[in-house]
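Researcher: We're teaching a course module on how sequence relates to structure. For the next exercise, students receive a sequence and then see the predicted structure as tokens, so they can try to spot secondary structure elements on their own. Here is the exercise chain.
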Amino acid sequence: MYVGRVFGPGNVGCTWPVIRPGNVRTTLKWYPGFGADYNSKVMTPNPWRDLRGWHDRLERLAGHHAEGWAPPIDVFETSDRYVIAAELPGLNREQIALAMEDSRLTISGRRVEGPSGSDVHYHQVERGHGTFSRTFEFTDKIDADGVTADLTDGVLTVTLPKVPPPPARKIEVR
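Model: And here is the predicted structure for the students to work with:
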């Protein structure tokens, strides 16, 4: 139990008696700015929480200065095709480019930045803008003539059919 005054502006650099469990009498010292959060909120130091906080801050800072961006993409496979679904809200068909080379697909595009000028002042910017490019390489051969792409409601769906394996042929022994 604490005996004495409560933390406040009048207690800057002060000491007061404290009765700890077991009737041990000690003196508690408090200095402004040094451990004030831990003392006033009864918060124990946690290095993982502090590290996570720094990590979050660095991610936010890095995100605001990045020129490019990467849309979230799902890739899945069935027995006869690969399917890629990319979230590209705000982009139209003319702003997206697809390139197929062997078993490698590249999706690229550009999202233009919002309005700018001397009278526009952003308070927060979270949407990515600028150019992006994502390349996917597949282990199976792709039928390049059968690849289809569809942009609906801001989701680009690319279907890449696999080349079926050649049928097993019987070799006659002579």
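Model: If you want an answer key for the exercise: The longest strand covers residues 104-111. The helical segments are 36-41, 47-65.
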